[in-house]
Structures are given as structure tokens and as C-alpha cells.
Write a structure and sequence with these properties.
Rossmann fold; 2 domains; 14 strands; 48% helix
Length: 430
């Protein structure tokens, strides 16, 4: 009995220490991400061929420019087909850090697994590379680092073999866990791409059937539906709160007001005219098609979490109210409008769709250039420096010139976001 008390004290100390460690590793990433996006941030989006598809990276830039979670954000994509986490680690100092990103996202693991079961060597290589990537970004002064997990392979389209898909998704889930643990240990943010895609894929296939692929027709490279889910995971990790704005109308008083980013130009019942510099995110296409963004939003909370443009109507004088926004009309219970309805979710066809497309077109031109920029122009410069060191000044001028072109394309993308005039017609249904 004499040894029981010291043993209990030792056990209690170990438990307290373990609890403190759990608190530290749970809280630190949240602390690191508290600042989230800040005005004038530069955002680097890195990944493998799924990133080089320039879909989720375009959607992220769409959101950062048009939905405006912070002013004057610049985004650059660094996708490289076939890349692994160690491959990115080896090239990032030359190919990426010239941007001096204040925010960076990574998405690796799909190729790291070798499309086969996980083993200790793969896990160790992936873990070490992820830590090395984070440490290089930290050394370069990157404030917000987001480690993204890999996504999923499609449950049906991957090798046309559900058993093979289940095998590789088990590998990808292991990489998800490593990425999350690395984020905790390094006190950086984590984007759980895997779970977001898996949950939405399960729900979408239940409605549309096994041929509705969420991770691509080849089972690996998602179409627009899966890429939107990826963008959602990263935007959530960036701390975007989703408040696009609010418009409040009192029909009895014939008054209207709007939050920042939106201006009431006139309020003559039943029509409110507004000008908005802040856009809602827009969705397009046939909902049953994987190449559409309009169908997949039913299966994950993009609009609830990231895309709320709220209309509040007071004193409508009827139990139901007809809302016309642009060319579309819908009826709502007055009680719902008193609480607020999300125009972005209720009106997929809205006055922002055409302006949204124009901005996205400019973003795609920018990101297409960026693939050439980092895979060829910047990547090959060390070879030229070694071959002709006497031309170092000329090579430096070339590096500066290609970087200036990218900055000009980014500025052109931002300049395409112009205020949109639109009207909301509010009519009591008698």
C-alpha cells in the first residue's frame, strides 16, 4: 500500500500533461488561423494535376475577388501535373516563393499514394514533406498556411471498380489524417477536402446514380462539381464568413437599406433599385451534369456557409409575397421574408450571372498564363543561370518581366469586378 499514492500522483500528472497537450494541439491551429484573410493578401494555391486543371483554384479566386471576404486580394495558382508533396518541396523555393505569399494552400496526396495501399514508407515520406513545405512557407513569411488533405477517388468511376476505389480512398484517408496531424503540430490551418467530397459524393450518387461522378470521369480528376467542393473546403479554412450582404425593405414605410458593398439607388414601391460592388457566387449548368456547379450545391452547405445575400422584408401587408429579382420570380411566406431569405440560394438565375462569367473569363486567362509561368519560365531560369552565369543580369530582367506580366493579369482580373445595378420587385400576393 505504501507505493499506491506515488503511483496515483504519477498517473494524475501524466493525465494532466496529456490533457494539456490535447488543448495545445487543438487550439494552436485555430489561433494561427484567427487572422484569416487580410487586405492586400497574396494567395498561393499549390497542388498536383487536380490543381493544374484550374477549376477549384479559379473558383477560389472567383470568390476572393467577387465575394470580397477582404479587400484587394491577389491569387496565383501553382498546380503541376503528377506532383507529390516531396516534389513540391523541392521546387517551391524557386517556383513559388518569388510571389512572397502571405497566404498559401496545398493539396497533395493523390499521387503520393501511388494508387495502391498505404504503407509506412509512403506515410513517412508524405509526413516529412508536408512538414518541410510548412517550414519553408513559414521561413518565407507566409502568415496563413493551409494544409489541404487530398480529395477522394470516385466510388464508381475509379478503374470502374468500387473495390479498387474503396482501397485507394482508404489510402487517401490515411493521408488526410497525416495532413491534419501535421497542421496541428505546426500550428497551421487544415482544409478537410477528403471528408467534404466523400459526404457530398455519397448524397449525390444516391439521387443521380452511380454514373454521376464527383471525382471525375476517370475517377481521379474532378469535374466542376467536385472542384467546387474543394474550393468550399479551402475557403472555409481561410475563415470566410459567407456574409455577402443584406438588404432590408419596409413596405409600409416605403424605405430600404443595404449593408456594405450594396447601395440603395431608389426605393419606390414595389421596386428597389440597387448597385452592388460585392457579388454573390453564381452557379451554372444542368444540375444533373457533373460539369455543372448548379446541381452539387444541394449536397453540401456552400450557400449556407459562404454565400448569403439576405433579403429582409417587413410589413408586406399579406401572408405571401412575390419577389422578382432580375428575370426570375418566386413566392415566399411573409414569415420567411421577415427572418430573411438568401437570394443567392433561391435565385440561381440572377442579375450577377453575366458579370460573374466575365470576371471568371479574365481569371482563367490569368491562371492559364500562370501554368506556363511557374512550370517553364520561372522553373527553367536556374538552368540558364548555370549555363550562362555572365548573363545573370539579363536573366534577372526576364524573371522580373514575367512576374510583372502575371501581376498585370491579376490586376486585370480584379478590374473586371465592376458594380452591378439590379432591381428587386416586392409584391404582396392578395
Amino acid at each position: 500500500m505504501a507505493n499506491v499514492k506515488p503511483h496515483l500522483e504519477s498517473l494524475m500528472k501524466r493525465r494532466i500533461f496529456a490533457a494539456l497537450l490535447l488543448i495545445v494541439f487543438t487550439v494552436l491551429p485555430a489561433i494561427a488561423a484567427e487572422s484569416f484573410l487580410k487586405p492586400n493578401d497574396t494567395v498561393a494555391i499549390a497542388g498536383d494535376s487536380i490543381t493544374e486543371q484550374k477549376e477549384y483554384s479559379v473558383f477560389i479566386q472567383d470568390y476572393l475577388l467577387m465575394c470580397q471576404p477582404a479587400p484587394n486580394l491577389r491569387t496565383t495558382q501553382f498546380g503541376w501535373s503528377g506532383e507529390t508533396a516531396p516534389g513540391f518541396l523541392g521546387r517551391m523555393a524557386n517556383d513559388v516563393l518569388w510571389l512572397k505569399p502571405s497566404v498559401a494552400t496545398t493539396c497533395y496526396g493523390m499521387n503520393d499514394g501511388g494508387y495502391s495501399p498505404i504503407d509506412d514508407a509512403k506515410a513517412k515520406r508524405y509526413k516529412n514533406a508536408q512538414r518541410g513545405i510548412v517550414q519553408l512557407f513559414k521561413g518565407a513569411g507566409t502568415r496563413l498556411i493551409i494544409i489541404g488533405s487530398p480529395g477522394v477517388v470516385d466510388a464508381d468511376a475509379y478503374r470502374n471498380n468500387p473495390e479498387q476505389a474503396a482501397m485507394y480512398n482508404k489510402t487517401l484517408a490515411a493521408f488526410r489524417d497525416i495532413a491534419q496531424e501535421t497542421a496541428r503540430q505546426e500550428a497551421v490551418a487544415f482544409a478537410n477536402v477528403f471528408d467534404a467530397m466523400m459526404a457530398a459524393m455519397t448524397k449525390a450518387k444516391a439521387k443521380y446514380g452511380p454514373k454521376y461522378h464527383v471525382a471525375g470521369g476517370d475517377g481521379v480528376h474532378p469535374d466542376k462539381n467536385g472542384q467546387l467542393i474543394m474550393a468550399y473546403a479551402f475557403l472555409k479554412a481561410m475563415g470566410c464568413d459567407g456574409n455577402i450582404g443584406s438588404i432590408t425593405v419596409d413596405l409600409a414605410a416605403n424605405t430600404a437599406s443595404a449593408s456594405d458593398g450594396h447601395k440603395v439607388l431608389s426605393s419606390q414601391a414595389p421596386t428597389i433599385e440597387l448597385e452592388s460592388s460585392r457579388y454573390p457566387f453564381c452557379f451554372f449548368g444542368n444540375p444533373s451534369s457533373p460539369s455543372s456547379t448548379a446541381g452539387i450545391i444541394e449536397f453540401f452547405p456552400f450557400n449556407d456557409d459562404l454565400n448569403r445575400l439576405t433579403l429582409i422584408v417587413k410589413n408586406p401587408g399579406a401572408d405571401r409575397v412575390k419577389i422578382t429579382w432580375g428575370q426570375s420570380t418566386r413566392e415566399f411566406p411573409a414569415a420567411d421574408l421577415a427572418k430573411g431569405v438568401n437570394l443567392a440560394a433561391e435565385f440561381l438565375d440572377n442579375p450577377f450571372c453575366d458579370p460573374f462569367r466575365k470576371v471568371e473569363q479574365a481569371i482563367r486567362a490569368q491562371q492559364n498564363y500562370e501554368t506556363q509561368l511557374h512550370k517553364q519560365l520561372m522553373h527553367d531560369l536556374p538552368t540558364y543561370r548555370n549555363a550562362v552565369p555572365e548573363e545573370a543580369d539579363a536573366i534577372d530582367r526576364i524573371a522580373a518581366a514575367v512576374q510583372r506580366k502575371d501581376a498585370a493579369l491579376a490586376a486585370a482580373s480584379a478590374a473586371t469586378v465592376i458594380p452591378v445595378k439590379h432591381t428587386i420587385k416586392i409584391e404582396p400576393v392578395k
